Structure formats: structure tokens, C-alpha cells
Amino acid sequence: MRRLLALSLLLASSALAESQAAQYDSLSADQIQDTEYVKKWLARKDLKIDHASIKFLNEQAEKREKTQYWDAAAKSYGEAMLLYPSPEAILNYTNAQYKMLKRIRERDSNPEQKKFSDMSRFLHRYRSAMAADEVLHTLTDNQRNALKTDIDCLEKYTGTKQFQPGCDPLIGYGITK
């Protein structure tokens, strides 16, 4: 099973490398955090999108999700997100990373500070997903409203370090006080 996982990750990395070598556009992990940059990048008319690599990476991620290999799913979703940061791509990556880190934090001896850092990271990604949707308009009203609610509660949490009742990202992550 590990060989299959390693082969899948190698193929995903190769797909990304080929995409970049073919002069397709992509972003860096730091650029994804910058909501204004994401909006400007998506609004460009001359984007060269590697749809074949994105499809391949998403298929790999979905396979890994089904077997709960969250690290491999996050890696593939993350590479697809860098190739084209649609709201869905950003949320897929963030959700896989959320599940991966939650599992890791459950084993940590002192996870509280790391949990706060994780929530801050998720907040940045949620903001980027919202920024991407301002350009692409691909989220449904329900998805957009849920995302706005998650952003609002994480902003309060990261500003005060106080638990926010009804905040699904906090509750799902095991932060209850």
C-alpha cells in the first residue's frame, strides 16, 4: 500500500512539474494567502490553465480521501489549487488539510497552541476562497453563506482566543473552550 501511495504522489508531483515546464500559470503557497493577489490572478484574461493536470490531481485526491489518507489528499488538492485557485479547489485543500491536522493534533501531547495556529491558517484559506468566489461566482448561496459564517467565527476566535459557540470549524476540530 505504501508503494502505491508513493507512486501516486510521484505521479502527482510529475504532473505538476510537467504543467509548470509547459509554461502554464500557477501560484505559490504564499500567493494563495493574499486575497487581492488571488482575485487579480483569477481575473487575468491570459491565464494558461493546465486542465489535464488539475483533473488528474483531483482524481488522485479523491481516491486518497476515500481511504482517509488525508496527507496525500491534501498534497494533491494543494497542487491542484496552486494550478487554479477556484473557491472549490481552495476549500477541498483546506478541508483535507483540516482532517489531516486534526488527526495529528489528537496525538500531540500539547496541541493547544498548534490548534490556534491551524485555525489562523484555515481562516486565511477561507478568505482566499471567498476572494476567488468574488471573481468566479461558482459557490452556491448556501456554500457562500456557510463560508462567511466560518470566516466570521474564526476571525472572532483568532482575535480573542475565546471559543465561539456554534463555530463549526472549532467544534469539528475539538476546540470547545
Task: Give structural notes.
The chain has helices at residues 2-21, 29-33, 35-43, 51-66, 70-83, 87-107, 112-136, 141-160, 168-173. It has one domain. Helix 1 (2-21) runs parallel beside helix 5 and helix 5 runs antiparallel to helix 6 (87-107). The mean pLDDT is 87. The N and C termini lie far apart (39 Å). The chain has 177 residues and is mainly α.
Short note summarizing the structure:
The chain has helices at residues 2-21, 29-33, 35-43, 51-66, 70-83, 87-107, 112-136, 141-160, 168-173. It has 177 residues and is an all-alpha fold.
What key phrases describe this protein's structure?
single chain; 177 residues; mainly alpha; 9 helices; globular
Calculate the mean pLDDT score and round it.
87
Please identify the structural class as seen in this structure: mainly alpha
Domains, number = 1
Give the strand content: under 5%
Helix content: over 70%
Radius of gyration: 17 Å
* Poorly predicted residue ranges: none
Quote the distance from N terminus to C terminus. 39 Å
Count the E strands. Answer: 0
Shape: globular
Describe the secondary structure blueprint for this structure.
Blueprint: H1 2-21, H2 29-33, H3 35-43, H4 51-66, H5 70-83, H6 87-107, H7 112-136, H8 141-160, H9 168-173
